[in-house]
Amino acid sequence: MDTPGLPISAAPAPLDLTGDVVALARALCDVPSVSGDETLLADLVESALRAVPHLAVDRHGDAVVARTELGRAQRVVVAGHIDTVPIADNLPVRVVGEGIHRELWGRGTVDMKGGVAVQLSVAAELSDPVRDVTWVFYDHEEVASDLNGLGRLVREAPHLVAGDFAVLCEPTAAGIEGGCNGTLRVEVRVPGEAAHSARSWNGVNAVHGAHEVLARLASYEARSVDVDGLVYREGMNAVGIRGGIAGNVVPDECVVTVNYRFAPSLTPADAEAHVRDLFTGFEVTVTDAAPGARPGLDAPLAAEFADTVLALTGGAPAPKYGWTDVARFAELGVPAVNFGPGDPLLAHKDDEHCPASEIEICRSALAAWLRGTR
């Protein structure tokens, strides 16, 4: 079965948090919320949560925070972002297959509105968790880190994200991924000397000179690093190159943008030193950096969470290769893991799709742990 999505309405219906979690995921996806355009979805999330009597709700920009206030000895933060990368003619959502083979196809199904649906569904149902819970729905995750809604909460309203343990509902195919790699982005500049291309011998072609930078990258052997029992794979890649000002001018500068994904055993300063050493002889400018996060699975709450969840979903904890906001919690000293529906390899792809069964099992596993049952 391939069920076409319904037309996206300019005025979407209120979110039903008490019905089928897969239908909720579909409804969330069908409200476009590309980074910078999250207000409508944030309004819907806020309105739905304010109707839940056991939750106290705060709005901070386009981030919505809902909390139980039961006086429990511990507090868990469960967070997810409501924005997506740009739509690529993949909304509204299509439902493909039937029964256990049913899948949602469309933007946001994996990254990460399937996980947001899990959060909203459990938040509405669970009035008496064994630990107090803070549910965070935030904006601007898919763009520059300085715009990130969770980062804004950490800076401007840290009491709203305080806790003893955090779960980030990023896609993990219903497994648990601990920590995350850090990321460093630099520009490597290759100098040259401009000249008319008809008399190129009077200049130095900077684009040609970039071959040395690219050769070092091509021969670079990325490491696999064991950090607290999980093996993180690093990566060093050119992700952009620019040079030249006109079709008849020898370029006097070429800039290669390089992204280094580094194991969480390194600090951003360590990563920068490593990159500068690799490109000795060239000018290197750091344009963006974010620390990684160690797995944190040795923390008692994290270990208990992993035992409960994996007893239901199967598998074993794995490393998170991409950067996620678990790193923000790690900087606060809060152990955090990634857990959510959807194959992370499909995130941002035009054929993004998520099995309905993963949304359902993630909901069941998260609710069971918060209830204190298995």
What features would you describe in this structure?
By secondary structure, the chain is an alpha+beta fold. Helix content is 27%, strand content 25%. The protein has helices at residues 21-29, 39-50, 113-125, 149-156, 206-209, 211-219, 268-278, 300-313, 326-331, 356-371, and strands at residues 2-3, 56-60, 63-67, 75-81, 94-96, 103-105, 132-138, 165-168, 177-178, 182-191, 195-196, 224-227, 230-233, 235-243, 249-250, 253-262, 283-290, 318-319, 336-338, 353-355. The strands form five sheets. An eight-stranded mixed sheet has the order 2-3-7-4-8-19-9-18, sandwiched between helices. A four-stranded antiparallel sheet has the order 1-5-6-20. Strands 14-16-10-17 form a four-stranded antiparallel sheet. 45% of the residues are buried.
Q: What structural category arises from helix and sheet content?
A: alpha+beta
Major sheet details: 8 strands, mixed
Uncertain segments: none
Total number of helical segments? 10
Q: What is the terminal-to-terminal distance?
A: 34 Å
Q: What percentage of the residues does DSSP assign to strands (E)?
A: 25-35%
List the helices and strands and how they pair.
Blueprint: E1 2-3, H1 21-29, H2 39-50, E2 56-60, E3 63-67, E4 75-81, E5 94-96, E6 103-105, H3 113-125, E7 132-138, H4 149-156, E8 165-168, E9 177-178, E10 182-191, E11 195-196, H5 206-209, H6 211-219, E12 224-227, E13 230-233, E14 235-243, E15 249-250, E16 253-262, H7 268-278, E17 283-290, H8 300-313, E18 318-319, H9 326-331, E19 336-338, E20 353-355, H10 356-371
Parallel strand pairs: 4-7, 4-8, 8-19, 9-18
Antiparallel strand pairs: 1-5, 2-3, 3-7, 5-6, 6-20, 9-19, 10-16, 10-17, 11-15, 12-13, 14-16
